[in-house]
Design a protein that fits this description.
alpha+beta, 242 residues, 38% helix, 7 helices, 6-stranded antiparallel sheet, single chain
């Protein structure tokens, strides 16, 4: 798989950050991903139907994150086109693409919009099949919530795609300044409910607090282990006889 870092800022911002080389490598990968999408559509569209496995070669080479970036950018640039469905346009709107009037057009997919719309739908279906947790599985206003003692959902954007699973998304928050919504500190000390790893994440890397009704049985069992009161060890030493 192409592991080039998906640079999240515009060329202008990259220049300010002295990271223009990172932006350029990512931009070239975006263009290559666009080309791969066009090739996949060309090879899998028979004039009437788009084959459902047309995504595979693109995802194998560029992964979900970059493919989403290229598809969302395309729909942003072509939002005036009525041949894209409302659902796909709404999906694209939720993905932030930095404004870059000079370069964003470089990786707009040039396939027929009606066929490309089907490709976007296939992509969204493939993401849903991963069964990842999202904002729709969370409760409350994360901007005002105290995370202490809560089960949090880690954003897939924070994880490598090889780690995209529910087991790697659910974390129990112990403490840290980041648990409070109004402190300067952002760090949250937490334990992964999947494998028991304890580490620190920043508050913004979590989507929010998981709604209890979506908590899987395996996670519930692990949560009970983490939150169960510790049994006191029996006292040692000589027993005094009366």
């Amino acid at each position: 798989m192409n592991e080039t870092y998906p640079y999240p800022y515009s060329a202008t911002e990259a220049r300010k950050r002295n990271e223009l080389s990172l932006w350029w490598e990512s931009h070239k990968a975006n263009i290559a991903c666009r080309n791969a999408i066009e090739d996949a559509i060309r090879q899998n569209f028979d004039g009437m139907n788009l084959q459902t496995d047309c995504l595979k070669t693109v995802l194998d080479e560029y992964g979900f994150k970059r493919t989403a970036w290229v598809l969302a950018n395309t729909l942003h640039e072509l939002k005036w086109d009525g041949r894209f469905s409302y659902a796909n346009k709404h999906w694209a709107e939720k993905i932030y693409i930095p404004t870059d009037l000079i370069h964003n057009s470089d990786f707009v997919v040039r396939s027929h919009p009606a066929v490309l719309d089907g490709f976007v739908s296939f992509y969204r279906k493939a993401v849903r099949a991963l069964n990842l947790f999202g904002a729709e599985h969370c409760v409350g206003d994360r901007a005002e919530q105290d995370y202490t003692g809560k089960v949090l959902v880690l954003s897939p954007d924070t994880l490598k795609e090889s780690c995209w699973s529910q087991e790697n998304q659910l974390w129990y928050a112990h403490d840290g300044f980041g648990c409070s919504p109004h402190t300067i500190g952002r760090s949250v000390r937490c334990t992964c409910l999947g494998d028991g790893e304890m580490t620190r994440w920043n508050r913004h890397e979590f989507i929010g607090v998981l709604d209890e009704k979506y908590l899987p049985d395996w996670a519930r069992e692990k949560l009970m282990e983490l939150t169960a009161p510790q049994q006191e060890a029996p006292a040692t030493g000589e027993m005094k006889l009366e």
